[in-house]
Design a protein that fits this description.
single chain, 4-stranded mixed β-sheet, 279 residues, globular, 2 domains, alpha+beta
Length: 279
C-alpha cells in the first residue's frame, strides 16, 4: 500500500464535486475521469504524479496528512488561529464545544486556507498514564500494543519514556498504520491522544476507541466520534509538504498542539520524483 499522489488539470468540469459521490461510487467517477483522459475524451494538458513503493515500517510507506489541534478552554470573544498568515476566527457562542464547531466551519469556508487545510471538531480522545509493555488499546478495530523500546511492527508503540513520550509514540503508530493513516489523524499533547477524521464527517459504526483489556493506565475520554472543544486542523493531502503550513492559536482560551511547534506536523508518506504525463 505505497503512496501515490495525483494532480489532474482538465479544460472542463469533472463532475466530481457532487454530494452523492462517496465510497466506491466516488472511485468509479475518478476512474472514469482517468480513463477519459487516457482515451482523449477528457481534454487535459497534463497529469502530474509522484509515488513511492516502500512498504516497511517507518514514516514513508503509508500516506498521512499533517495535522494539529486547537484546544478551546474558557474561551471568549474572537477565537481561532492564524493559518499561513491568514487569521480565521469565530465568535464565542454558548460553550467551548459549540465555538470549536464554529471555528472548524470558519476554516473550511475560508477561501484563503481551505485549499490547504480542512478542520473538524468531531473526534475521539484517550489518555495514557504509566502504560506497561503488553498493554493495548483498540482503535477502529485495530489493536495498538505497548512495547518497551523501538517498535518493530505496525501497531506497536514505545512506552519506555514518560507519559508524554508514550502518547507521542502512540500517535505516531496511528498516523503510520496502513489501516488508519488516511482515515484518522492523531495528535498528542501531554499524555493525551486526540483523534480526528481526516475529513469533517460523522463516525462510522465500527469507529471507536476501546480499552478491551480494562487497563487502568489507559483512560478513554471519548470513545466514539463526537463534537468536542478541540479543533483538528488537517492538511488536504498526505506527505510532508503539509508540514510547511504554519498555525498559531488566536484568542482567549485557545492553545495549539502539534508534533512540530508552530506548524502542522507528523505527516507520513509522500512521493519523491514527480512524473508528468501529457496525454
Amino acid at each position: 500500500m505505497p503512496t501515490l499522489n495525483i494532480s489532474i488539470s482538465t479544460k472542463r468540469q469533472l463532475g466530481l464535486l457532487r454530494s452523492s459521490t462517496i465510497g466506491s461510487e466516488a472511485l468509479r467517477h475518478l476512474v472514469n475521469v482517468l480513463q477519459g483522459i487516457a482515451a482523449g475524451r477528457e481534454p487535459s494538458d497534463g497529469v502530474l504524479w509522484n509515488a513511492n513503493d516502500t512498504t516497511a515500517l517507518g514514516d514513508i510507506a503509508f500516506s498521512a496528512p499533517a495535522g494539529g489541534v486547537l484546544v478551546c478552554s474558557g474561551g471568549a470573544g474572537a477565537m481561532g488561529a492564524t493559518i499561513d498568515a491568514t487569521l480565521v476566527t469565530a465568535t464565542f457562542a454558548t460553550s467551548d464545544t459549540v465555538t470549536a464547531g464554529l471555528i472548524a466551519a470558519a476554516i473550511r469556508a475560508n477561501t484563503s486556507v481551505n485549499r490547504k487545510v480542512t478542520a473538524t471538531n468531531i473526534g475521539m480522545q484517550l489518555t495514557l498514564a504509566t502504560v506497561t509493555a503488553g498493554q493495548y488499546v483498540d482503535i477502529c478495530n485495530t489493536r495498538f500494543t505497548a512495547v518497551s523500546g523501538t517498535p518493530a511492527q505496525f501497531g506497536e508503540f514505545d512506552i519506555s519514556g514518560a507519559d508524554t513520550a508514550d502518547a507521542l509514540s502512540l500517535a505516531l503508530a496511528i498516523n503510520r498504520h496502513p489501516s488508519l493513516s488516511m482515515r484518522w489523524k492523531a495528535v498528542s499533547a501531554l499524555g493525551v491522544v486526540h483523534l480526528f477524521p481526516t475529513t469533517d464527517r460523522a463516525g462510522r459504526q465500527f469507529e471507536s476507541v476501546i480499552n478491551s483489556g480494562a487497563f487502568s493506565t489507559i483512560t478513554i475520554n471519548s470513545g466514539v466520534p463526537a463534537a468536542s472543544a478541540k479543533v483538528g486542523i488537517i492538511a488536504l493531502g498526505g506527505g510532508p509538504i503539509g508540514e510547511c503550513c504554519t498555525v498559531v492559536a488566536s484568542g482567549t482560551g485557545v492553545t495549539y498542539s502539534t508534533a512540530i511547534p508552530g506548524k502542522l506536523g507528523d505527516a507520513k508518506g509522500g512521493g519523491t520524483t514527480p512524473y508528468l504525463v501529457v496525454p
